[in-house]
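ESCALATION

Customer reports they have been waiting on this structure for their group meeting. Please prioritize. Original submission:
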Amino acid sequence: MSSADETAFAVAKSLRAKDLETTNINQGNRTFISSGDVSWFAEQGQKLFGPELEKAIPHNWSKTS
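Update from on-call: job pushed to the front of the queue and completed.
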């Protein structure tokens, strides 16, 4: 079992315990953000996710004081 699987099971258990689990199957919104080369990220992501990764947007690092 991968750590991703373990995390998913732990989250599901926590949601059930807090009565937050739902049986509704709705499509959510996805936003893919890249801190690097957005074109490369989108190309690689489409190989993994297919059409779900329609586009990626850049993340702009900025200093806030």
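Sent to customer with the following note: The mean pLDDT is 88.
Escalation resolved.
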